[in-house]
Amino acid sequence: MTVPRRRGPTAPRGTVEADSSDFSARCDGPVFRRDRLTALGYTSLAAYAYCLYALAPFLTLLRRDLDFSYLVMSLHSTTFAAGSVLSGLFFTQALRRLGRHRLFWLSAIGTAAGVVLLAVGHTVVFTLAATALLGLTGPMLQTSSLALLSVHHSAHRDRALVEANATASLAAVLAPAVIGSLGGTGSGWRAGLVLPVVALVLLYALGRGRPLPDQEGPAAGTVRPGRLPGRFWLRSAALGAAAGIEFGTVFYGAPLLVSRLDLSISHAATLMTLFAVGILIGRTAGSRLVNDQGKAPRLLTGSLLLTAAGLGIFWSSHALVLSSAALLIAGAGVANLFPLSFSHAIAAAPDRSDLAAARNQLVVNSAIMAAPLALGALSDRVGVSSAFAVQAVLIVAALLLVTVDRPASSGGAGRNPLLADRG
């Protein structure tokens, strides 16, 4: 792997810069090291992933208990995403004003508060307000973590982000399993939201006394004003389509199972655990394939094709075993769409990692807002099964965007998009 040129005299923390006299070290590149900041980023992403993947089965059970429509259920995900859009719009301003350390921990505290309020809410107005708070602070925590990892492991960004998302996938597997298994116990399923709160409290207790690198440290220069390049927006659009695919399935996979297989809501919510298991398997495998960042476009194309196969079978199946297998396949395909697309977009603006991460998050959360809302509105009109065609449209759009970008990103020396994007 070719080592990107560095502007400053020192390498980012978490890497080892090759000595100028050691030619072999230059060929091998900096060493990937998992340190305290790496663990902090991985753990915070896992806590947020639990909240995010618990939200879909939670809202499905909330709809049963409060007896509201699919559209109202989608309004919760839309409210969440609207808060997320605001967090993406104001992330860079908040980072400049508060610094990385305070922003990270305020986001963690706000996320824990949003989860608690959602768990105790018994009216739609209250749960919508709690979802808005969670939507504002949760993605802020996610963006802070991803930006921290992107800067901290700039030479191994793909690997760090895939590993971080693999760790988050463990929590994503746990969330629907816990919420779904408690779904038949009256209102006891609300207690399933306790776990991320406990994790965030422990994270705060263990890490608050150790400051994160701020603007004058390794993050210096990553929030510069100015326009991001056009290639960034092309890749970010593909990231948005990938997010719509993932969360359209997360929020409407269970309703489709209920519609097609006549399962109970709690059974369908529990079965969606297979989708998260597929994601975990895919990210575990993906972490072994991303040592060369130049593989990102090919891995994205392969992941999209695997997703298309899995969701196609899931959409058309009327058999429990086939639907279960399709969820695993779709999860394995979806697994690396987000981390690779996110990293691939940041590679187009490596000297503005925080700004690029914030704009990526804005695009992602706009997609999370739009895709479930479209599925919800269409489901009320034409049924869940017909509405699921939205997923096919998003897959085709993502494939087109990745294909259009490939000639620009696959050519040149070294097959390293960081070098290509530096021009």
UniProtKB/TrEMBL annotation:
Gene3D superfamilies, per the entry: MFS general substrate transporter like domains
Q: Which UniProt keywords apply?
A: Cell membrane, Membrane, Transmembrane, Transmembrane helix
Q: What is its main location?
A: membrane
Q: Which positions fall inside the Major facilitator superfamily (MFS) profile domain? A: 37-410
Specify where the region named Disordered lies, as residue ranges: 1-22
Q: Offer a single GO CC term for the protein.
A: plasma membrane
InterPro entries linked: MFS (IPR011701), MFS_dom (IPR020846), MFS_Efflux_Transporters (IPR050189), MFS_trans_sf (IPR036259)
Q: How does it sit in the membrane?
A: Multi-pass membrane protein
Q: Which GO terms describe its molecular function?
A: transmembrane transporter activity
UniProt key word Magnesium? no
Please give the start and end residues of each transmembrane region.
39-62, 68-91, 103-120, 126-149, 161-182, 188-206, 232-253, 265-286, 298-315, 321-342, 362-378, 384-404
Q: Where in the cell is it found?
A: Cell membrane
- Name of this chain's protein: MFS transporter
Which source organism?
Streptomyces sioyaensis
